[in-house]
């Protein structure tokens, strides 16, 4: 497995230069490192912020599971989507409201065909809310399909 978490991960993360705002590091409650977040008040409604995970060395014709923690805290905070590079137009995962402020786990299967996925993009879309945040943390890539809960 490959640890792509932000504090101590070995992965290559890039801010998208063509979006409306950047994701920013935010300190974890427990004080051990940080996660990436977009506060609700950043930007205008419908603005986008994209954080891209560059994937190298994924073997063709194999499957991987991307596991991550996410949080959508606050009223009408916006949307969090995940895109794979080879399917740019349609998100493979989307969440638009949190039931509460707790962290949850997202899982995405990545199937490598002859054309390999070379990046995963976390996209935050600004909602109408003025408080709260969208956060992503503990991003891990493992070989094989995602385990059932």
Automatic annotation (TrEMBL):
Q: Which CDD domains does this one have? A: MAM
Could you name the domain of life of the organism this protein comes from? Eukaryota
Pfam families from the UniProt entry: MAM (PF00629)
Q: Which residues form the MAM domain?
A: 2-148
- GO cellular component: a single term: membrane
Q: What is this protein called?
A: EGFL6 protein
What is the organism field in this record?
Lophotis ruficrista
Where is the organism placed in the taxonomic lineage, from the top?
Answer: Eukaryota, Metazoa, Chordata, Craniata, Vertebrata
The gene behind this protein is Egfl6_1
């Amino acid at each position: 497995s490959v640890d792509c978490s932000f504090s101590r991960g070995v992965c290559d993360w890039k801010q998208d230069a063509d979006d409306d705002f950047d994701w920013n590091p935010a300190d974890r409650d427990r004080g051990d490192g940080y996660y990436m977040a977009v506060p609700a008040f950043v930007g205008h409604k419908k603005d986008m912020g994209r954080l891209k995970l560059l994937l190298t060395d994924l073997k063709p014709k194999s499957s991987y599971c991307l596991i991550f923690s996410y949080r959508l805290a606050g009223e009408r905070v916006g949307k969090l989507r995940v895109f794979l590079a080879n399917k740019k137009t349609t998100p493979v995962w989307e969440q638009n409201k949190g039931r509460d402020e707790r962290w949850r786990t997202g899982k995405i299967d990545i199937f490598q065909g002859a054309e390999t996925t070379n990046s995963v993009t976390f996209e935050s879309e600004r909602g109408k809310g003025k408080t709260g945040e969208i956060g992503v943390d503990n991003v891990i890539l493992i070989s094989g399909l995602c385990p059932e809960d």
